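Example record used in the benchmark description.
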Amino acid sequence: MEDVPGGRSRHAPGLRPVGEEELRPRHRIVHGYRRAYRLAGQGPALVLIHGIGDSSATWADLIPDLARTHTVLAPDLLGHGASDRPRADYSVAAYANGVRDLLTTLGIESATLVGHSLGGGVAMQFAYQFPERTERLILVGAGGVGREVTPVLRAASLPGAHLLLSALRLPGMRLNVGLFAHLMRLLDTDLGQDAAELLTLVDALPDATSRSVFIRTLRAVVDWRGQAVTMLDRCYLTEGMPTLLIWGDRDGVVPVRHAHRAHEAMPGSRLEIFEGAGHFPFHTDPARFLALVEEFTSATPPAEWSRDHWRALLRAGRPGGPGNRVPGTDVREAGERSAT
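Model output (structure tokens):
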């Protein structure tokens, strides 16, 4: 497999077809572990980061269109999809390091990051740790903005969650879970908007190792009170970095009010709300999602990182001075600790 040329290249002048061979999952061994990913297209790099319990397959229907004008990289985060599941660090900071290392092995120097749910938190953490390699941020129903999260995930973070998840694999339980999801749809609940996707996540935990990784990843960011990690205290550092926020107004996993909170905390960010969509707006309305990504990446110049600018932002702190509260909330309410 040939390495992909990196750098801050311009869009290709025309569209190019994407072959089936390009869309097949590949893998690299990094630090002794298998890292699975999908890689297609040519042009400016676009990295698609999935959420907890998910995989690069969540982007599969979008990759052919995005790859007409971009080099699209969609990894399976460690512990997910076809990647290895070692006993390891599954924090957002570790995931950001993993994305950095995979980009480096593929010869991609910088990229626009598209992160969904947990992947949004990973994308924000990547931008914080490696601003010189981040061209733009596109955050979709991203975690790490406020404490609120669906009670389902809070419950899964509690002691005994292994037993609960194991019980879902018992004969007949899949049918019961499916009936419950169908009921949520019939009652038109917000969580019911994503019933099909949530069932897919349950199916993605077939064995004890997969369930253990899911719980370790979840507990790194969620406890019984909700999300425990926030990036709100350092969102001001995105000044000068093109940032697009995409949210479903019926997101039952990460409430849409988090989108407005993040929009206020990120200087110059753009917010797009998908009416009637849940936690997976790119599944609900893929045509609009594709159009937004294409328009945003072509209309905004990549961020130009400067050591002096970064130092000035850090010294100034959040707008209003060191004692200024994060817009819309107190940092302590959003999370007890930050991802560092």
